[in-house]
């Protein structure tokens, strides 16, 4: 193999290894919340297809109970977690309502939502990872900073999600505390 080609191959391999190593770090809380909210188009689409209401209070109660149990097992104070979970559910509903409103004027004909049960499984896994990340951050004794807020606001970017929705999630996340 000619020397220049060999050097290029080595440089590409090193770049690939570096990119892989960098991507191996755990995602930020903001990235996890962004991923959780990214499923809302599928939820809205499924509910629209099956003529279901956006607001599903029994499902919300199940999510809240499950998440609070997870929070408790992670050493988080449940009552401090409740507003954070509610803020995420409210933002999720807002996204769904906004999609449904958009579809009244311009339906999407070349897209199909994923099955709701599959989507809810993914959302549940992400919710658990979000709480694990929050608990780890609090247990490490690192308070959330203005720099963290800016990174969060930048990371959480979904169509039909407003700045006020993100701000509420951020503020409620700052209110989470560990059990004493």
TrEMBL record:
EC number: 5.4.99.5
Matching PROSITE patterns: CHORISMATE_MUT_2
Name the record gives this protein: Chorismate mutase
Role of this protein: Catalyzes the Claisen rearrangement of chorismate to prephenate.
Metabolic or biological pathway: Metabolic intermediate biosynthesis; prephenate biosynthesis; prephenate from chorismate: step 1/1
Domain Chorismate mutase: 8-100
PANTHER family tied to this protein: CHORISMATE MUTASE (PTHR38041), SECRETED CHORISMATE MUTASE (PTHR38041:SF2)
Keyword Acetylation on entry: no
Gene3D superfamilies: Chorismate mutase
Key words, A-Z: Isomerase, Signal
InterPro entries per record: Chorismate_II_sf, Chorismate_mutase-related, Chorismate_mutase_periplasmic, CM_dom_sf, CM_II_prokaryot
Pfam families per UniProt: CM_2
Reactions this protein catalyses: chorismate = prephenate
Domain of life (superkingdom): Bacteria
């Amino acid at each position: 193999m000619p020397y220049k080609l060999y050097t290029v191959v080595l440089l590409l391999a090193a770049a690939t290894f570096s990119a892989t190593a960098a991507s191996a770090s755990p995602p930020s809380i903001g990235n996890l919340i962004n991923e959780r909210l990214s499923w809302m188009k599928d939820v809205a689409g499924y509910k629209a297809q099956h003529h279901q209401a956006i607001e599903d209070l029994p499902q919300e109660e199940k999510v809240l109970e499950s998440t609070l149990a997870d929070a408790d097992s992670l050493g988080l104070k449940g009552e401090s977690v409740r507003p954070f979970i509610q803020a995420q559910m409210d933002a999720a509903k807002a996204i769904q309502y906004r999609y449904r409103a958009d579809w009244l004027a311009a339906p999407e004909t070349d897209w199909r939502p994923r099955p709701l049960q599959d989507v809810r499984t993914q959302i549940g896994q992400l919710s658990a990872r979000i709480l694990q990340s929050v608990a780890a951050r609090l247990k490490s004794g690192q308070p959330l900073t203005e720099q963290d807020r800016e990174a969060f606001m930048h990371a959480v970017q979904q169509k039909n999600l407003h700045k006020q929705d993100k701000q509420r999630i951020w503020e409620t996340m700052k209110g989470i505390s560990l059990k004493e």
